[in-house]
Amino acid sequence: MTVQAPAARVAVITGSTSGIGLAIARRLCRDGFHVVVTGRNVKRGETVTAELGAAATFVPLDLTTPGAAARLMVTAEARLGRIDVVVNNAAIDHTGDLLDVPAHVTQQVFQINTLAAVAALQEGARRMQQGGAIINITSRLASAGVPTMAIYSATKGALAALTTAAAVELAPRNIRVNAIAPGMTQTPL
Looking at the domain assignment, is residue 2 inside a domain? Predict the structure, then answer.
């Protein structure tokens, strides 16, 4: 595969075909980044990259499949020559009475909201040769108790704790790790 000449910096944004992820992709494009848009919905991904133009590349994938984060980062690096920023935004919502949530649903929510982010953080950081930035999109619910939101809140709380630990561990590699915890935001999620 031919490596394109990237913009000044390359940002990989998970879950960026709608909502907060799309807003992040738009902003980073305006700021001069080449963005790698990801998501499961190919039609939405193609629509987003058409909107963003030459400053965007779409990589369709489901982050819950084994090896998906590695494939994403390998593809981004192969196409663009580098990775400077990873934004872990992909997430699914969950509401329901805590005592009634089946184990398989809990596992599914953790798989995309937390475990996929861990994998993307690891795979992205391994490829940041000159340092970089990892931004984890958490939630105000990581620190606020809201009825019916316990499982979602737990996934975002785990991501917040990961952010703190990863920031310390990756600092010697010149990789900054931060979290953004949006409040209520009108999105499809």
Answer: no
pLDDT at residue 142, rounded to an integer: 77
Whether 78 is in a domain gets the answer yes
Q: Is residue 4 a part of any domain in this protein?
A: no
Query: Which residues of the chain carry a pLDDT beneath 50?
Result: 1-2, 5-7
* Predicted TM-score (pTM) of this structure: 0.92
pLDDT recorded at residue 177: 98
Domain for residue 93, yes or no?
A: yes
Residues forming the active site: 152
DSSP character string of 91-157? -----S-GGG--HHHHHHHHIIIIIHHHHHHHHHHHT-BTBEEEEEE--GGGSS--TT-HHHHHHHH
